[in-house]
Amino acid sequence: METQKPQAQQSAAAVAKKAESNVKGVKNAFLVICACFIVAVLLFTFWFGHESHFNEDGHPQDLWGTIYKGGFIVPILQTLFLTVIVLSVERWIALSSAKGKGNITKFVAGVKKCLQNKDIAGAMNLCKTQKGSVASVVSSALVAYQEMDNNTELTKEQKIANVQKAVEEATALEMPALQQNLPIVATLTTLGTLVGLLGTVIGMIKSFQALAASGAPDSTELSTGISEALINTAFGIATGAFAVISYNFYTNKIDNLTYAIDEIGYSIVQTFAASH
Which residues, in sequence order, are CB contacts of 135 under 8 Å at separation 6+? Predict the structure, then answer.
């Protein structure tokens, strides 16, 4: 009993030390949005609005000048679009680290094989090699497996419940980090389209104001209003479409990781129940 106490204390210390997920990513998306807004304003002011993109009468000569004619809504839409791109890249890096170094399917199969052979040490080595969220959950479950295996005081049902609890706690620790920033991307799917629609309406209002002017319609004002409407429509659609694709893509990747975690967690619990 005296030799078991230091081991239990070391195990508790290890669990306490691992109080955060292995998934690395941007914790504060607000800073990303602010940075994207600054970049968008600089682009709008110094590039799209540069005099080289306009003729002497102020009419745009190329696409960049046409975008500038989209009005003040353009920097807002660019901010949303850049935010989607940055958060998508951030999620790619984060989920790649969550996946680990090897193939998830092969890793799960390898751990199952080790469990069938009652080779807990081999399964632990696979976790150290694989790394990532799935390996982290499996490693926590295997630690609980070994502790319950050496425990002589609890009943079989209590041991199984403790192993199951270890799997659930490790999974609950990893899931928020996997889904981090995705709600913002999901929000941008609708927000981008709505802001683009707002810009479209503002542009059409200006166009109708030009048509309603007394005498001959001002062609410059009319073209400016139409440009503002179409440019904002294009940016809004592009932002919403890219956000939808990004959200669905990463949601599917998270579902695959979750399925792997559930599968291997169930196997560990069932193996323990069958061997005790």
Answer: 100, 107, 126, 127, 128
